[in-house]
């Protein structure tokens, strides 16, 4: 990082206020600033990794302590500017009505619009450029889910909220339907007070989890989490967990849907986060009949594309197997029994057995 111009305490305080104002102008609903001390979170991370609760997410362990030590990841980092952007699509079909209809597929609401990574990183870059216009060159790097960064811990320390019992970030004013991003910087800005916890005695998220992945308050075993099983897991979904997944084909929002604080969540102001291609309430048989070209076309610019067509078929097969025994579902599943992928064949076969068709 560059050596920034020395800032007096007054200059630093004024700049911090400007940064927050510019961030809001750029479409972030909240901006906070924190130092880089994540010792308490590092201990929790290491315990989680030692317990194997990250499953196949090897990248969580790959970078050693860099994830919890911002100055090891980006030398010279003194402060982290943490931002949030609301993503709840204003035009999407009501979630429980989709989850309650076994002929439909449920896609986590964050993935209904355009992929947020590039959009938020571009906005963070614009924020850095604004700062540069005022103070000259300074050291920074922008991150949106793109590096070993403990984003929820940093957001909590920056006063954006607290990490709830479901391990998502929560805010009294905004619930949890938002993306997070970070600007690591060498500017000695004043840090904001951290967020306070307000979960109290509520256990709604723990009680609703279909696979009991929230094994204790503030403890998630990713290996049981439907978001992990449908997005991160590359191999077969463990058979005992398949019936519990229901019709959730990409991610799971149950713990957020029941959270009382989400009564206060805002809708996305960003047009790119609006639901696309009818994926807010899609017919499962239609989805299972997509060939790879259709899959790539319908998921262009979407986070869904990262799982690829093979895992998409795996997920939809499980959902079909959990639904009613319809002739069109059986016909669709049967057409995939000679699919070149063993993963697809195995899950389609499982679904056919569940529907009494084998």
Automatic annotation (TrEMBL):
How is the cofactor bound here? Binds 2 [4Fe-4S] clusters per monomer.
Any signal peptide, and if so, which residues?
Answer: none
Where does it localize?
Answer: Cytoplasm
UniProt-recorded Gene Ontology molecular function terms: 4 iron, 4 sulfur cluster binding; cobalamin binding; epoxyqueuosine reductase activity; metal ion binding
Query: Biological process (GO) annotations?
Result: tRNA queuosine(34) biosynthetic process
- Amino acids binding [4Fe-4S] cluster 2: 209, 225, 252, 255
Give the main location.
Answer: cytoplasm
Q: Which pathway does this polypeptide act in?
A: tRNA modification; tRNA-queuosine biosynthesis
Keyword set for this entry? 4Fe-4S, Cobalamin, Cobalt, Cytoplasm, Iron, Iron-sulfur, Metal-binding, Oxidoreductase, Queuosine biosynthesis, tRNA processing
This entry carries the following GO cellular component terms, namely: cytoplasm
* Binding site residues for tRNA: 234, 293
Ranges where the 4Fe-4S ferredoxin-type domain occurs = 187-219
Q: Report the cofactors.
A: [4Fe-4S] cluster; cob(II)alamin
Per its UniProt entry, which superkingdom is the organism in? Bacteria
Binding annotation for cob(II)alamin? 67, 145, 169, 180, 227, 252-253
Quote the catalytic activity from the record. Answer: epoxyqueuosine(34) in tRNA + AH2 = queuosine(34) in tRNA + A + H2O
InterPro entries in the record, alphabetically? 4Fe4S_Fe-S-bd, 4Fe4S_Fe_S_CS, QueG, QueG_DUF1730
Which E.C. number(s) belong to this protein? 1.17.99.6
List the active-site residues.
145
The record's section on NCBIfam families has:
tRNA epoxyqueuosine(34) reductase QueG
Summarize the subunit comment. Monomer.
The role this protein plays is: Catalyzes the conversion of epoxyqueuosine (oQ) to queuosine (Q), which is a hypermodified base found in the wobble positions of tRNA(Asp), tRNA(Asn), tRNA(His) and tRNA(Tyr).
Family of the protein in this entry: Belongs to the QueG family.
> What is the recorded name of this protein?
Epoxyqueuosine reductase
Organism of origin is Thioalkalivibrio denitrificans
